[in-house]
Amino acid sequence: MELFDFHMHFTQLPLYKELAPLLENSMYFAVSSACFSNEWNQLEKLTREHRFIQAAYGIHPSEASAFYESHWKLCLDFILRNPQSKIGETGLDKRVPFYKGNDFQEKLFVLQAKAALQFKRDLIIHCVGDYTRIFKLLRSLGYPQKESNIVLHRFYPKKHLLQDTLDLDCQLSLHKDSFRSPDLALFLKEIPQEKFKVETDADINFVSPNSRPEEIALKLKNEIHETNQLFLAALESFQRL
Asked: Which of 33, 60, 101, 175 is the most exposed place for a label (fewest CB within 10 A)?
C-alpha cells in the first residue's frame, strides 16, 4: 500500500505559487494547514487553482491570545466558504510561554473542536506535552464521531497514549521523527492500517529561503517517498514478528 496523503504548510514555503504547478500531476494529495491568519486568504486562492491541495483552516496554539474570539470568527468565515476544508492545526503546546490548563489555548481549541463536530470536518491536532488534557477535552465535547475524524499531527507513538487513540478512533499522521519511537510496533498491532497517514510537515524551515521551486518540489517528493518507505518497512517488520 502506498500512502500519498500528506500534511504540510504550503503557503509557508518560498515561491509556493510557482511550486504548486510542479506537483500538480504527481500522485500526491496534500492537506495544507493555514494556521496563521496571514495564510488563510493565500491558501483559499491556492486550493481553487490546484485540486490536489486540500485546505485546513485553523489557529495554531502559539497564536492564542486574549483576542481569540474575534480572531476565530475570521477563520470560521474561511471554513464556511470552503465546505471541503478541514479544521486545524489547533491544539495545546506546553512550549508556549505561560502555558497552563484552561487558558486561551484551551478555549481556542474547544471552539475549533466544536466547529469540527458541528460542520462535520476533520480536526487536525497539534499537541506537545499535554495529550492527557487533549483527550479529556475531546471526550467532554462528544468525540469520537464518524463525521469528524481526529487527526493527530506529527504523532510520536508512546505506549501510554495507545488506549486513548483507540478509544477516540484517531488517525495518526506520521513524520520521519515518528519512526524513532520504540513503541510504534504496538500501534501497528492494534490500529488498522488505514488509520495511518504520512506527512512532511513542510513549512518555512523545510528549505532555505532562496531555494528554487524545482528544488523544493524534488525535496518534497523525496521526503514523501522516504517517509512512506519507512512506514511500509515498519509494517513489514511488524508482520514478520
From this structure: 101
Beta bridge partners of 86: 56
pTM attached to this predicted model: 0.94
Is residue 92 exposed (0-12), middle (13-18) or buried (19+ Cβ within 10 Å)? Answer: buried
| Cβ proximity of 57 and 78 under 8 Å | yes
- Cβ atoms of 124 and 153 closer than 8 Å: yes
CB 56 within 8 A of CB 32: yes
The residue type found at 132 is T
Whether the pLDDT of residue 112 is over 80: the answer is: yes
CA distances from 58 to 98, 110, 124, 125 (A): 21, 12, 9, 10
6 phi, psi to nearest 5 deg? -135, 155
Closest to 32 measured CA to CA, from 50, 17, 11, 18: 11
Determine the Cα angle at 193 with ends 190 and 197, to 5°: 115
Q: CA dist 76 to 21, 58, 106, 115, 128, Å?
A: 28, 8, 17, 8, 24
Output the pLDDT for position 240: 65
Confidence band for 3, pLDDT divided at 50, 70 and 90:
very low
